[in-house]
Write the structure tokens for this entry.
Amino acid sequence: MCNIYTILDDKVGQMRVFECAGRSFGVYVRAIGHLPTLQIIDRASVQKPGLAPADKSLWEDAKQIAPELRDVLDQSQYTWDDPSYRELCSRLKLDPDHGRPVYAPAYEAIAARIVAIIDGDRKSPTGNPNLRHALSEILDLLVEDEPTKLTNACRVEFLPSAYGRSLRSDIAESWESSDCEPDGWSNSRYGHLAGIAYDFDTRTVWSRTVRRRLLAQGVLFLSKEVADQYLAGEGTHWRTVERKRGQTRIPSGGFFARLFQTETPLSDAAVITRHLARRAASDR
């Protein structure tokens, strides 16, 4: 008998866990090339999501130990609306639309035709991987929230705060980075980001990853209405501080506010959450 349950993994999202015969396997949905895949990992070892495990015996072990996973292993490619895929996700208690691209309304019909071509080509014995890659790049251009980008990136706009001036950061998946996490995040590239930022749309799996990671680093997100109020108050103060000093020093709680006779509650909160986030990370 297997112990089967669902968790919300902090790196890949919703995951169905199968604990059998002293082994623990996890299965989850991941979009690759604009089409869904079901990934299986051995939770006792580190496997980068989106890539087949180096140890091929993992697949055979999972088949033997967890019969519920046989359908996943025997069906390596799916489409979002494939009834068998959606029924399999239902049995596994996974969201079949996790990470599903959202195309701009004007291009939905074109995107559907391109996806159908990619699906047909990958199922053909004479399929062309280069063709599929080129078509996937075209689909990247049709995604609603990032119609002009080929890379999977998310733009975050930081407001002036104790951590510096206004900053616009394009945060991209970093699979080529040596410290890339299983969800595509790179601490060496983006671990320094802190302070206060505009909240943003999270319709894509990567944008949700970025928001979750930045929250874990102590970043505070503000709606546009609240941000406008902040910029008219505290934000003006930090811009003034930067002009006078040439750089912004991180305040030490209430002392900094008293020194400049300015109340900076949101910036103070950002400093505190950043400190707590770093301490929590060091305790892991």
